[in-house]
Amino acid sequence: MPRNPDGIMIGAEARELGDPNSPNAALFVHGFVGAGTNFNQLPQKFADAGWFVRVMRLPGHGTSPRDVEIVTADELEAAVLDEVAQLRERHERIVLVGHSMGGTLCTLAASKTNVDGLILGGAYFGVTYRWYYVLPPEVWTDLSSHVIRWVYKGHLFTQVNDRSQLPNILSYTWVPTKAGVTLNELGRRVNKPETLEHVTCSIIMFHSHHDIAASQEAASNALKRMRSSDKQMIWVDKSNHHVFWDFDRDLILDESLKFAAKVAQGDDEEPIELPSIR
Question: For the domain 15-268, what is the CATH superfamily, name and number?
Fold first, then answer.
């Protein structure tokens, strides 16, 4: 995998787009063993709409699987909160955009600090259960971490139905099972009642009925438990887990920009109630 002079995988670097003096800022938080490329053209579209955009690189990501093996849940949470704090110093309104585990981290951040909106795509609140697992997949992850160090994750196991997009989705090829334990810990934290009850900002969530990674049931239940009075679930049916790259990507891009425009109106306008799209 090509790397820049700092040893970061090309495409995984943190980057900034748009007007740094804009009152509106969006922080993009990528998924588990993923990168900022998780979001397709959405960061650039935000910048084109007048937003300042920060696409972060989570600790342990974009370098080596050995790095993500030792990253803790606390470090991942702290990294996102630090990014939000820096944006809050310069911008009036902040929207967090998260994919998969990035959605988990965005939700945790929104429960602890002031943000104005959440855009969650394929957010992880639990692993999709299959009958042949017998036990919950989180249990298997915790158990296997004691005997198996690495799990292969090549393009074959990248959950996107539009296989032509595989070259655009950056991820580690090998995943340490201990990182899966960290993911489980984040899942436990985000599902606590005291977490979800403290999420009060505007929310739009995109999830596929056919997501074989992040549980649709867990995501739906989490959204119901969030206290926001302005929240919307958009279900899609042509996509898998990587919804920003998959067959429903145009719908998700358009609805995300509409949501951002609503947030950018601020408190001077009456909130717009958006219907659930199924």
Answer: Alpha/Beta hydrolase fold, catalytic domain (3.40.50.1820)
